[in-house]
Write a structure and sequence with these properties.
The chain has 2 domains: 30 residues; 120 residues, Sufe protein. Chain: A. The chain is built from 5 helices and 4 strands, in the order αααββββαα. The chain is elongated, with a radius of gyration of 23 Å. Strands 1, 2, 3 and 4 form a 4-stranded antiparallel sheet that branches. Helix 3 packs parallel to helix 5.
Length: 155
Amino acid sequence: MHTLRKNRPLRRIVLAGAATVSGMVLLLSLKPHTAPGVAGLASPAPAGASGAPSGTAGSTPTGTRTLTGDSVQTRWGPVQVRITLKDGKLTDVTAVSYPQENPRDQQINSYAVPQLTREALTAQSADIDTVSGATYTSDGYRRSLQSALDAASRS
């Protein structure tokens, strides 16, 4: 019996150590909701985007315009969007290119791209949330959208 009592504390120590290591690995593998650099990019976007429609509404001709944003290279492939503005209001956002090379990309972007489009149309700017699980696509989408909105405000 004395031998079993000696093994139990050692077994507990080994299990506690393994659980601690596993917990740390899981904790470190978590990704933040938005990347720290994205927060800095997103802050100026609403000011520029919200100022652009009000400033361009009176200065640009009314009608429908379609502009394509820059192609943004992400870790998994390029992302590019095309926007449609009607009388200075964002009426449509279409993802022209986004990662679709493998089944995992297709699965992720089948839910991420429509969600990003809905948010962009609701926000009327590039100040949109990152879709969980599609961080790189979200960042590329946001940057391409902002470049198209910037081009619209210049013209």
